[in-house]
Amino acid sequence: MEKEEEKEKKKQFKEIDKDPTQIENLDQYLDMDIRAGMSPEAEKISQNPFLTRGMSDLPDKNEVNCSNYQQSCCKLSSYDWISQMDISIEYLEFPIAEVRFKNNHKDFYLIPEGLVLKVGDIVAVESSPGHDIGIVSMLGLSVKNQMKHKRAKIEDITKKIYRTAKASDIEKWVEIVKKEQKTMLDSRYIAWDLNLKMKVNDVEYQGDGTKAIFYYSAEDRVDFRELIKILAEQFKIRIEMRQIGVRQEAGRLGGIGTCGRELCCSSWLTNFQSVSTSAARTQQLSLNPQKLAGQCGKLKCCLNFEQSTYVELMKDFPQPNVHLKTKQGKGFFNKLDIFKRIVWYSYANDSSTIFAIPLDKVKEIIEMNNNGKYPETLEEFAIVNQKKVDEGISYSLDELKNIEDK
Fold first, then answer.
1. Do 85 and 129 fall within a single domain?
2. How do beta strands 238-243 and 211-217 pair?
3. pTM (predicted TM-score)
């Protein structure tokens, strides 16, 4: 019976698609479930709390070297090209290892004598208090180069690796990591009950379960002393609060940008540089907050990527306050196309029509003006004449300041 009803509904919808005028009641459309089912791969990813630690699946307590650890799951993964070189093992040895934790949290640790490690080994490392559990992400001479890149000195590395993790360590670690999502949600409700203007974005448990780091974002300073007391009492752990910005928050949550690609901040970008509206002005972009803002609510980081190129190329263009003088009237600057090397001008007494003039012709007119000569019109130099298009809604300075970095 149910299958017959479904067939009848599909038949009705097909008839409606052919002739929409026969629709009298839209309620039948509102009852339709148009959501696509989740694929097995997507479901597996959503149920994997260790993905942020670089694992494609939960670790096996009987495996010291984690076969699920994959560089493709990691943010800031480093390819160990030195290990592929045909050089002596003695040269590759280095007494420090890089250990990965949640998200982009990585640190350097001393390797005790006699302990042989491989990339992907789950290890117990020194922490304060107790110990933490992490995954060895880099060894050998590559660590030395990485430390040089991060300006870390060997003498400043004091924490050490205790041992490779035992089965009991891994088992406890798995149980603790599974609690992170629930702990984060519970802490949000507690903060809301206390009327704190903050948002808990992520929770990272220490491997032994004695401590947790709560990452939060807030616009102003927050007095969370009462919150720490409640969290410590409810979860029976030591609490550490770390404030992050809205850009770091977007990087932790991840997502797809307007370009259709994964967010830069969640895939490869680590150093967040200040972005100002001057970058948008330089690139001749419409100052529309809805288009310029990313998922974090601030100006898109990609505005900085080509800024230096635009600044360099604009040195060849005349300043906007330079007017082109003709016998028909002055030509005022409107806009420019850097890569096509075209500048748009309009007459002072008629701004409704704009003229696209090649850069070399603009320079020719300016040189003529400097010599006291004036061409007849701008039209004789223009390659395109068109009516000026209304750029739409103008936004206030306050609206633009809301998306600009302070």
1. yes
2. parallel
3. 0.71
- Please give the Cα distance from 222 to 232 (Å, whole number): 18
Task: Examine the domain organization and report whether 297 and 325 are in the same domain.
Answer: no
Is 105 part of any domain? yes
Specify whether the CB–CB gap between 392 and 286 falls below 8 A.
Answer: yes
Phi, psi of 332 (to 5 degrees): -100, 140
Are 210 and 120 members of one domain? no
Alpha carbons 237 and 9: distance in angstroms, whole number: 56
CB 303: neighbour CB atoms within 10 A?
Answer: 19
Q: Give the mean pLDDT of 229-254.
A: 89
The residue out of 171, 191, 224 marking a domain boundary is: 171
For the segment 119-138, what is each residue's pLDDT rounded down to a tens digit? 889 999 999 888 999 999 88
* CB-based burial, 370-403: b 16+ in 10 Å, e otherwise: eeeeebeebeebbeeeeeeeeeeeeeeeeebeeb
Residue 383 lies in a domain: yes
Classified as helix, coil or strand, 64 is coil
What is the bridge-based pairing of β-strands 342-347 and 330-337? antiparallel
Q: How many domains does the chain have?
A: 4
> Distance between CA 384 and CA 337 in Å, rounded?
13
Joined together, the tokens standing for residue 77 give 């993964």
CA distance 28 to 26: 5
**Model confidence at 388: pLDDT above 80:** no
287 belongs to a structural domain:
yes
Backbone angles phi, psi at 313, to 5 degrees: -70, -30
Residue given tokens 């050998």 in the structure block = 140
Query: Residue 202 is part of a domain; what is its CATH number?
Result: 3.30.300.20
Return the sign of the alpha-carbon dihedral for residues 289, 290, 292, 296. Answer: positive
Do 198 and 222 meet the contact criterion of CB atoms below 8 Å apart? yes
pLDDT value at 336 more than 70: yes
**Any domain includes 398:** no
- Residue 136 token pair: 């060895």
Q: How far apart are CA 194 and CA 231, in angstroms?
A: 12
Strands 350-358 and 342-347: antiparallel
Half-sphere exposure of 130 (CA within 13 A, CB side): 13
Token couple for 380: 């004789």
Q: Is the dihedral of CA 304, 306, 309, 315 positive or negative?
A: negative
Q: Structural domain of residue 352, as residue ranges?
A: 318-387
